[in-house]
Amino acid sequence: MLNLLKPIDLSAKASTGLLLLRLLAGSAMVLHGLPKLGNPTGWMPAEVGIPGFLLALVVLGEVAGGLGLLLGALSPLACLGVAAAMGGAIWFKIQNGAAFVNQSEGYSYPALFLAVAVALIFTGPGRFSLDALVFGKANAPSSDPALQ
């Protein structure tokens, strides 16, 4: 289990890119979820028909997942939270006839954050993360020069 939390030992350049990606995506997720903390089970109108516990899970995915991205802490779990919240948002928007790109109702925004979360599941948070500090780094596969 702890091996899942050990980031691959990436180069400083790759880790810097992941740090910038995590900081931007994490802060956007946290800022997107914070207003919902005031009413975590009722931030959407009741007519929508989404149960309150699912709305609360979305808030948890956005805020806790966003903080995890920002800090590079428990990254696989944080990414799963963000991915689940964004997957739900995409599903909801598609069910309501939204186009991929539309100024206010499209689902390109959640799709982008879903892609970031999935990418970070595969790459890990990089060497500039709490995961690397606390759990150490896994060995990079020697056959991939980008990971050296």
Outline the low-pLDDT stretches. Answer: none
Largest sheet: none
Total of DSSP H or I helical runs spanning 4+ residues: 5
N-end to C-end Cα span? 24 Å
Question: Which helices and strands, and how do they pair?
Answer:
Layout: H1 12-33, H2 52-71, H3 75-95, H4 108-123, H5 130-135
Helix pairs in contact: 1-2, 2-3, 3-4
Briefly characterize the structure.
This protein is mostly helical and 148 residues long. It is built from 5 helices and no strands. The longest helix has 22 residues.
Descriptive overview:
The protein has one domain (2-139). Helix content is 57%, strand content 0%. The chain contains 5 helices and no strands. The chain has helices at residues 12-33, 52-71, 75-95, 108-123, 130-135. The radius of gyration is 17 Å and the shape is elongated. The model has no long low-confidence stretch (mean pLDDT 89).
Core attributes:
single chain, mainly alpha, 5 helices, 148 residues
